[in-house]
Amino acid sequence: MKDLKHLIYFENLLQEANNELVKQAKSEGKKALGYTCYFMPEALLDIDGCFSVRLRAPGCTSPDMATYYMSGRTCIYARSLLERALEGGYNFLDAQMATETCTGTCRFQEHLQMMDIIDNPDFFCEFTDVPFKKNETSIEHFTDQLQYHVLDQLKEHFGIDTSDEALLKAIELHNEVSSLITEIGSYRKKKKPTITGYEFQVIQLVSLTCPKYLILPYLRETAKELKTRKPDTKLNYRIKVVCTGSENDDPEFTKLIEGCGALVVADRYCYGSIPGREQIVVKKGEKPIHAIARHYIETSQCPRYMPQHVMRERKQFLADLVKEYGADGIIVFQNKFCEYWSYERTIDTIVMPRDFGIPVCSIEKEYINGASGQLRTRFQAFVESVELKKLQEGA
């Protein structure tokens, strides 16, 4: 396929957290607000005068300093973030909007709060409690948490306008970005997809890590470009897969999978677009802050929700994705020592083949791939097993 015009530029933006567009927004007087989890709503952090940056630690392979503080049995993703913070990689942040969600990222953010790591006199870290259930009481609680721990803090520290009008404007920005990402991702549903999983992941990541108002023109142009992009005449993949699991902000991991013959057509993982790029709908008479809280509680597919009926809903959601995107199997992964996804991966590995007849490749991985040879062997074997299954079924 013809190369996407802005792909190399997008790849360059992902080389560090304090990228070119982040620096531009900072020079314009905008406040940089870091976060690590889906449960910290982007729309709140992209309110006028601020911009959100979902934190990454690209290229971090040996978080030695962070391991000293957090121990070697903590999530490798969280330790990599702390390592980058200790190296000075997040000194551009004006605040870290933390969430009480997974243990690993909580520990990382507690260290930011306690150790005075960020070299910015205005920096502060604020924690928001996130409910463990999906009901009206949870939504009300989350609404109050977001009001006090996010909006009130932004107004107090930086004088940000947090009115309903300002929130509605931020929701509009979020919805336009989400609409473009969803449109771009829809080309993966084609019988012959006109975008690779690697390309889409790069585009999704820049939408998370760059100021929305600055990356938006590039997303618009890319969406327009894809309307006329033609697929390769000869297929350059052997099967299609849905990827699901914990934090994956490393496009090289997706490139590794696709290099083994498995085209990644859906990204159901942390930092992915499913869920993550749905429209926030404000109902008639509803306060914008309540609409945002309701949206994230209702759309989340996070394994921290443990009631049996919710777990079963997640398996059905995954099976529906396989059907919707025409996939042949699932690759489920977890970062080493990831608590929630260690349980979820085990359940997926058993339930998806047993109850839905969907082949599963289950792996534990490092945050940045060091053992690519071992993973390549696993992925190649999985591709071959799926091909054999399709032959036996006469597909």
Features:
Rossmann fold; 15 helices; 395 residues; alpha/beta; four-stranded parallel beta sheet
Describe the structure.
By secondary structure, the chain is α/β, with parallel strands linked by helices. It has two domains: 18-166, Rossmann fold (3-Layer(aba) Sandwich); 232-392, Rossmann fold. The chain has helices at residues 7-13, 20-27, 42-45, 64-70, 76-86, 103-115, 136-158, 164-186, 197-209, 212-226, 251-259, 288-299, 308-324, 339-356, 372-392, and strands at 31-35, 50-54, 95-100, 124-129, 239-245, 262-269, 329-335, 360-365. The strands form two sheets. The protein has a four-stranded parallel sheet with strand order 2-1-3-4, with helices on both faces. A four-stranded parallel sheet has the order 6-5-7-8, with helices on both faces. Helix 11 (251-259) links the parallel strand 5 (239-245) and strand 6. Helix 4 packs across helix 5 (76-86) and helix 7 (136-158) packs across helix 12. The chain is globular. The model has no long low-confidence stretch (mean pLDDT 95).
